[in-house]
Amino acid sequence: MPIRFALLIIDRKDRYVPKDSAPSRSAILSAAVHILKRAGIEGFTLEGVARRAGVVKGLVLYHYGSRGRLLRAAAAQLVSERAAGIEGALAKGPGTVAVDACWHELRRQAEDGTARAWLGVCSAGLIDQSDSGTALEGAARQAVLDGCAVALAAGAPLADLRDAYHALWLALLDLSDVAGPPGPPGPRGPRGPPRPPAPRGRLG
User: Which residue pairs, CB below 8 angstroms and at least 24 apart, start in 58-66?
Assistant: First the structure.
């Protein structure tokens, strides 16, 4: 192949590669997370991500190389966003304020597809679920959060689940009193609010 012709082909290909690739890469990852929430792993396709991001499939492959790599990146981003949402809810205030805010955040994540997608990536082994180094109190809190997320994703009756959620938090507060001050957060996500006084009655 003549050198001039080869350079012409390269030049034409370069026109489809953005000079500043950060915005495109970010848009593709955001679209991938959206598809993962809406369609799950089974419905996660490069074509769907490309349509959502408003780019060609080739650009998706240019940035991420394969469906598997993009899926793992989307799973990591999903887990990070889920944990940040719960952390933010638990930081809204002491005691019942944090507990109630966390309940609303778990419901929001169930409604927008986060909980179901998170459950899917956990089942597929796409994220690390190790609890090594997590204290008993932190592991118990994470179990409550994860259990409620699974129940919400499965469509459990809200009234019953909410009663169970509050009862479990009361038990966690008792555990906090026995275990003493909390240690550092575990690798799977938020630890929960500091040891507040036990809530009285049902929360709004």
Answer: 58/16, 59/16, 59/17, 59/18, 59/24, 59/28, 60/28, 62/17, 63/21, 63/24, 63/25, 63/28, 64/28
